[in-house]
Amino acid sequence: MMEEAEDQPEIVSHEEALQAEKEAHERMSLSRETTPTKDQPPTVLAAPSPLPAFLSNTISTPKTPALPKQASVRPPQSNVSIAASPAPPAAPQISHEDRVKAAVPDQSEPAGNSIGSAQSIFGWLAGNSLVNKVVEKTKSSMESVITTLDPGMREIINSGGDINLAVTSTKDNKVLPVREAFQKVFGRATVTGYASQATTAAQPVGFTAGLKGAEERISNLRKAGDISSDLTVVSVEGFIVEILPDRWFEMSCLLLKDPSHGIEVQTFSQPTFIPTEYVLTAQDKTPLDYPLRWSGLAVTIGEVIETAKPHIGHADWQMVLSGVSRQQSLKLAALSLASMYKQKLPTSFVS
Known about the structure:
Blueprint: H1 2-6, H2 14-34, H3 53-60, H4 79-84, H5 96-103, H6 108-127, H7 129-149, H8 153-158, E1 163-167, H9 172-186, E2 189-193, E3 203-204, H10 207-224, E4 232-244, E5 247-258, E6 263-268, E7 272-274, H11 276-284, E8 296-297, H12 301-308, H13 317-322, H14 326-344, H15 347-350
Parallel strand pairs: 1-2, 1-4
Antiparallel strand pairs: 3-8, 4-5, 5-6, 5-7
Helix pairs in contact: 9-14
Pfam families: NTPase_I-T
Domain Non-canonical purine NTP phosphatase/PRRC1: 169-279
Region (Disordered): 1-99
């Protein structure tokens, strides 16, 4: 019985129905008032005020990377305030070049700083003794490798410079030690050998005869016209001398003449002991009427040793008898000669 009572519809009274109909009419009238009709004219908005002069010029000019982009945000305004607000005062005209100069930073100063820093770095490298030693060591190592693989490259690498001289011989055991010595002392030097003979004996005897033979080689070379009159010349002349009684030694005289600077320097190589029997044999083979007997013997010690011991040879007897070759002893003497010559040269010429 209770379930059937709940399913029955609710009964509305006549007063409530009238009140609901009245409220519906009021809502409909309100909606008609708010909705615009076709005859009502639309609301006209006032035109926006013109932009300032400097903003219009900025917008019309092309964009540049240096100018930063700035977004202008304008606060929302009502239509009444836009129409009633007066125009803003005209801003001062600023040219495009002035704006670019003001916006773009000056790049000259950083560039100068970078160039200055680069120059300071290179200056430090050039003035650093450790770097110079490493460069020189690398250079000498490369030159050593090249000259070891091809000994003929030594003359090409170290030739040149301000030192140019001639040697009064074309034999390698005389030209090579002089060239190596001067290139070591001066760094670069051009050394050329020329054939020249002395008018002294075949085997000079004594210091005076050795120096005389070196001078005659230079004089004969200049008279032949093979070299210029002002070219520096180095002459090498071997001789034997009895330093102690019955103690004979072979030595070489090295003479340098530089006419352009008025320099003359001479030195002697280290002595090489000669057995007395070889000297006696050379004296026996020299005739009594030998025209150059005043300066020495008619037969050289090398020829005597080669005849007595054919396995030694004419050019290697100093190495066999003393353990030092003639080329090595001449190089030591040439180093001393080049050093003395460098000390006598003007400072401006050497530098």
